Amino acid sequence: MSSLTVAGLSKAFGDARAVADLDLKVGEGEMLVLVGPSGCGKTTTLRCIAGLERPTAGRITIGNRVVTEIDQGVFVPPEKREIGMVFQSYAVWPHMTVYDNVAYPLKAIGVLRGEIHDRVMKTLRLVQLETLADRYSSQISGGQQQRVALARSLVAEPKLLLFDEPLSNLDANLRLQMRVEIKELQKRLGFTSVYVTHDQTEAMAIADRIAVMDRGMVRQVGSPRAIYDRPANTFVAGFMGTTNLLEGSVQEVTDAEAVVRTSGGITLRAIGARGAARGATVHVSIRPEALQLCPLEKPAAAANVWPATVALSTFLGDSVLYRLEVAGHTFEVHGPSTEVFEVGSKVTLAVEPSRCTLLIE
Description:
Elements: E1 4-13, E2 16-26, E3 31-35, H1 42-50, E4 57-62, E5 65-69, E6 74-75, E7 83-86, H2 98-108, H3 113-126, H4 142-154, E8 160-164, H5 172-189, E9 193-197, H6 200-206, E10 209-214, E11 217-222, H7 224-229, H8 234-239, E12 244-253, E13 257-262, E14 267-271, E15 281-286, E16 292-295, E17 304-315, E18 319-326, E19 329-336, E20 346-351, E21 356-359
Parallel strand pairs: 3-9, 3-10, 7-8, 8-9
Antiparallel strand pairs: 1-2, 1-4, 4-5, 5-6, 10-11, 12-13, 12-15, 13-14, 15-21, 16-20, 17-18, 17-20, 18-19
Helix pairs in contact: 2-3, 2-4, 3-4
């Protein structure tokens, strides 16, 4: 497996720019997930890496080999890039057996028959399909067809594996099962991969690092934990999970924290003050599970504590979803089901500054 470097990638369709001056690096054995809303450019980026689209500008390097460099007229066709690709639609040939589907790439590059058999059966064992080698695609399930597509992409030992929304056609239970299998296989084999999805939960479950895209640009790159806990801007905070976004102005700034006063009159301390200036308009992101709900007579010992009223209380079994009114602001809170506060209850809402992220963008 090889590393991947994308530099200055742009792609326009007529006057519409789908990808804008995009830079990415993927290390050997790493899984980078591109995630974003429909139309943000993630699939176009993947197709440019694969050679299925010719970029308007940019340079793409797989390992030490430049496969695209528009300024120099370099554009290696897809079949010569030594990549594997798993599509949303499986792309499994119905007139072939499982074995023949997986063997096809090896036959196409002239691998000897005896070696083909060994490599196909070895790969089918990896995806737990060796007992179905003689079945046709019409005789196996959707999840099994996706395993066939994965095996076909792996059998030629590509330098880079690309996934384009591979689980979107599966039902919810199969999606959960397959994303675990893909991640386990990636860890075991160490293949380098770029994985496209619009599903934030899938991205966080499967990625080593995530690149969040919007309108053809990468808005933030980082580990799933960093992206979720420390979003770089309001788009990432709102797209990657549920958050409470408060707008306010900076009252005080220190090296570690800022004091922010919201339009509703709430004053709170938040981290991430670097670059913030006194008087600047900012947002503060607070995840629902970071907030602590307490009886009014027993407030929590936290730096940020406010009186609140329960406007909604929905029991979900292992947790309770609340909506709380605080000085004209509405907060969403995820609390434990061990203590349930009824609608209309007067409570206190508390959160530590370390769970409040200041956003300048």
